Amino acid sequence: MRIALVSPYDWAVPGGVNGHILSLTQHFQRRGHEVMVVAPTSRQTGREPPWVTIIGHSSIGLPASGSVANVSLSYNLGPRVKRLLAREAFDVVHVHEPFMPLLPFQFVRYSQATNIATFHAAREGGSRPYAYSKFVIQPWMKNIHGRIVVSFASLRMISRHFDDDFHVIPNGVECAQFAEATPIPEYLDGKRNILYLGRLEKRKGLPTLLEAYRKLKPQAPDTRLIVVGGDGGLRQGAERFVQQYGIEDVVFVGYVPEEEKARYYKTADVYCAPNTGGESFGLVLLEAMAAGTPVIASRIEGFSDVLTHEQEGLLAPPRDSDAWCESVKRLLDDAGAREAMGKAGAKTSRAFSWERMSALVLRYYDEVAAVRGSAENREPGT
């Protein structure tokens, strides 16, 4: 099968959607399919794999759910997409976030293949862009033959605006990569490690965790908070907070490559995800769970769909530093609970393996193509 996987996001900028596409590509290729990833980029190196095609050589950061989406607004995307489609004759064109500016929409507009779309976003209360542009988007929905959402949180959001059929296929996790990782020796010094791993931006909730750790540290002096992730505008303020209150044993690691993340999960006694909302799926929770690390996560949509309270970890109210302090202290003080939750998390994560998720996506391609072929072959009036 010849498959195009289309991203709206700058391929040079790591992110959840691009990581999702990369994992699908690798698993599809292992199964013998021909895959082309199509995306814009702001930094073409000339060392991109042969299966990556760049359309759109610049990107602009747009605010999106408390984060920044780096997308291409190039004026000449349409003609380039038409030429690519005519040359490659894909069996399946799978666009991700089909109505995010601007590249995926050009495939929705011009592709004559079996067109699949995955909707990744989730936001409590719905989406303003969808609400405002519904009547512009709706006519183009007929060009999308199969619709995937990555979680029930995503389904709840998009169903507020469109009554089409959506198929839930979650994000996946590379279980072996996290289960087999080795801890980082410098942090194995007798201190108990609390891990934050995520971009340092407002909606990821780091201020809540820092305030909780400030309250916890006098009660648990043998603890360390490890903060891993690229700066989304909060690092300077976070470091200033630590200095102002003289909080010891807070380590700001900064951005680490994807292959290093597993080692930090393995190093942690507890992984904390204090996000405030807008999460479609708890992929970071699954990564920690695959590493066998117990999790404390905010009780928000997307996270509650992945983690069961008191099973793989604990759910705590977002923005409540007192509750977070209590939850962290509880797990740190109970080694038996940490071990049991870590084992439960590892078991849960295996149900979300990329091996299984990619097979479900391929099966859905076949189902949609069969229905489409049957409809096209049906005689008018029958």
Describe this structure in words.
With 382 residues, the chain is α/β, with parallel strands linked by helices. Helices cover 39% and strands 18% of the residues. It has helices at 16-30, 77-88, 103-110, 128-137, 152-159, 175-179, 206-216, 235-245, 258-267, 283-290, 321-332, 335-350, 354-377; strands spanning 2-6, 34-39, 52-54, 60-64, 67-71, 92-96, 114-119, 146-149, 167-168, 192-197, 223-228, 250-254, 270-273, 295-298, 313-316. The strands form 3 sheets. A 7-stranded parallel beta sheet has the order 3-2-1-6-7-8-9, sandwiched between helices. The model has no long low-confidence stretch (mean pLDDT 93). The two termini are 30 Å apart. The protein folds into 2 domains: 2-172 and 353-377, Glycogen Phosphorylase B (Rossmann fold), CATH 3.40.50.2000; 175-350, Glycogen Phosphorylase B (Rossmann fold, 3-Layer(aba) Sandwich). α10 crosses α12 (335-350). The protein is built from 13 helices and 15 strands.
The number of domains is 2
Element-level helix/strand string: EHEEEEHEHEHEHEHEHEHEHEHEEHHH
CATH homolog superfamily of the largest domain: Glycogen Phosphorylase B
Q: Could you say what the CATH architecture of the largest domain is?
A: 3-Layer(aba) Sandwich
Percent of residues in helical segments? Answer: 25-40%
Q: What is the C-alpha radius of gyration, as a whole number of Å? A: 22 Å
Number of strands: 15
Instruction: Going across the biggest sheet, name each strand in turn.
Output: 3-2-1-6-7-8-9
- Helix count, DSSP H or I runs of 4 or more residues: 13
CATH level 1 class label of the largest domain: Alpha Beta
Approximate strand percentage: 15-25%
Q: Give the termini separation.
A: 30 Å
Largest sheet: 7 strands, parallel
What is the overall pLDDT average?
Answer: 93
Structural class: alpha/beta
Shape: elongated
CATH topological fold name of the largest domain: Rossmann fold
